[in-house]
Write a structure and sequence with these properties.
With 507 residues, this protein is of the alpha/beta class. It contains twelve helices and 27 strands. Among the domains are: 217 residues, FAD/NAD(P)-binding domain (3-Layer(bba) Sandwich); 104 residues, Glutaredoxin (3-Layer(aba) Sandwich).
Length: 507
């Protein structure tokens, strides 16, 4: 089977699979999504989308419809359950200088998936194929041959690559023989969605995302667009409670209300487990197939979207011939530490706070961490940013102006590396008219130089330059900084050489 010209096959139409597919489409990569089920998920699952995920959705042209279906909030509250008093809040408004989206949103997964699927159908008609269950696959030098079970029997499909977004019980991972390392907690979590009025008839002043800590039994309260979600821990060995029992437990906490309707409930096991390897030649693991992280602090879905931010542009560069195959190795090298140490450590911290084994301190650093804006990728990875920006950091989404009006830094690199030359535009710094494909070079300056307007951006008050000084900053398509160096008159050449190194075409 000739698979060299086949599209990329995404296995699984959960949120991570759909976001990954939208990312590939945004980069012009043909894609097909295979989903085993008859329908998208209807279970009561993930419910909070963090700021960094909103930025990824914006980059993929998917943010507007998601916001329409969501409830926005700017406070992540922490409350002592015994006394009902606040122990501090993370105010995401502290991030107004970092991002265009200084908030998080609540939307249940079963309402998010149809929005993403509708967008995919609009952008790539027929790309989502339901009732296609992967049976097996074989890899070749030029692609991957898949066999899928459908209502019409077994069908074959030729793909250039396979991206496994098929969950914690991944068929792809099992077929590859990849082991999962880590542990499963004895404690499970129970979740119930209730329709009740805590705003008008029975007003409660709870933050719309609130963590009620307690040594005996903590609770998470999430205001969804159409209901309230309550999450409780279950003691080891405890039978799964009925939905009515969970309703009564919630009522015991919030007090008497006029009426309560159970929309759905779920009991799930809590993991900190990560696949031993995330790539086998042309096959990659993403989301829960690569890492099972507790959903505390919204780390499950949102950590998976970080995978969906990192891999699509790499595949696009390789498939366009703009990069060497080695570029694909950076995906696991960068994302695995985020899952193992970053999100995993945050999950343990979340449980310690909820069990009252440690204190939480709310502030700018907490806001950066809790919204996943503070992820530094690479060998010097971390989950918070301190000091001047460095390679691996997500670049702040600062505003500059082109000839027609405002534009933000993340918009400049949506499908390109961009080199930002932070220098005096009055001196007419030389920039090449063209260069390697996938790289553009621009000047950012508080001086609006007429002769450079096609490749210059106005920076009133030196807002960007104050962050980076007189440097040239090379930014990747996923808005992470690839390289920074002091600016000189020959920086255009050195940053071009650096770009070629980044995409493994140097020499």
């Amino acid at each position: 089977m000739n698979t060299s010209d086949g599209p990329v096959a995404v296995i699984g139409a959960g949120p991570v699979g759909l976001v990954t597919a939208l990312g590939l489409v945004a980069h012009g990569v043909p894609v097909v999504v295979f989903e085993a089920g008859n329908d998208l998920s209807s279970e009561t699952k993930a419910g909070t989308v963090l700021t960094r995920t909103l930025e990824v959705l914006d980059r993929y042209g998917a943010l507007g419809p998601v916001l329409e279906a969501s409830l926005r909030l700017d406070e992540i509250g922490e409350v002592d359950r015994a006394t009902g008093t606040s122990t501090g809040s993370v105010l995401t408004s502290a991030l107004a200088g970092e991002t265009r989206f200084p908030f998080v949103v609540n939307v249940p997964q079963h309402e998010l998936e149809p929005v993403l699927a509708s967008l995919l159908e609009e952008r790539a008609p027929g790309a989502l194929r339901m009732r296609h269950r992967l049976v097996d696959f074989s890899q070749h030098d030029d692609g991957v041959a898949l066999r899928l079970s459908t209502p019409d029997g077994i069908v074959a499909f030729a793909a250039s690559h396979v991206l496994a977004c098929d969950g914690g019980r991944s068929t792809v991972r099992e077929r590859l023989g990849v082991e999962v390392e880590g542990h499963t907690l004895e404690q499970r979590y129970a979740l119930v969605d209730l329709v009740c009025d805590l705003d008008v008839r029975n007003p409660r002043d709870y933050p719309y995302l609130a963590y009620f800590g307690d040594r005996e039994e903590w609770m998470v309260l999430v205001r969804q667009p159409h209901c309230w979600r309550f999450v409780f821990p279950l003691a080891p060995g405890r039978d799964a409670p009925a939905a009515e029992e969970l309703r009564d437990k919630a009522a015991h906490f919030i007090g008497e209300v006029d009426s309560v309707e159970v929309l759905g409930s779920n009991v799930y096991t809590v993991h900190h487990r990560v696949a031993s390897r995330w790539r086998d030649r042309r096959v990659f693991l993403l989301g829960d197939a690569a890492h099972l992280i507790t959903p505390m602090w919204a780390l499950g879905l949102n950590t998976g979207v970080l995978d969906a931010s990192n891999l699509p542009w790499r595949l696009a560069w390789v498939l366009r011939g703009w990069a060497g195959e080695e570029l694909l190795e950076g995906y696991e090298a960068e994302q695995k530490p985020v899952a193992v140490h970053g999100s995993g450590a945050m999950a343990e911290a979340a449980r310690a706070v909820m069990d009252r084994r440690s204190d939480s301190v709310a502030g700018w650093r907490d806001a950066m961490t809790r919204t996943l804006l503070g992820v530094r990728l690479g060998a010097d990875w971390s989950m918070t940013r301190s000091g001047p920006p460095r390679a691996g950091d997500r670049i702040p989404d600062l505003r500059v102006f082109d000839r027609r009006g405002p534009v933000h830094l993340h918009e400049l690199c949506r499908d390109s590396f961009v080199a930002l030359h932070l220098t005096d535009a009055r001196r007419r710094p030389f920039l090449p008219a063209d260069g390697p494909p996938g790289l553009k070079q621009v000047v950012v300056s508080r001086w609006d130089a007429p002769d450079l307007r096609s490749r210059a951006f106005f920076d009133p008050g030196d807002t960007v330059r104050e962050r980076f000084s007189d440097t040239v900053v090379l930014v990747r398509p996923d808005a992470h900084i690839a390289h920074i160096e002091p600016w000189t008159t020959t920086s255009w050449r050195s940053v071009q050489d650096r770009y070629l190194q980044e995409v493994h075409l140097a020499g």
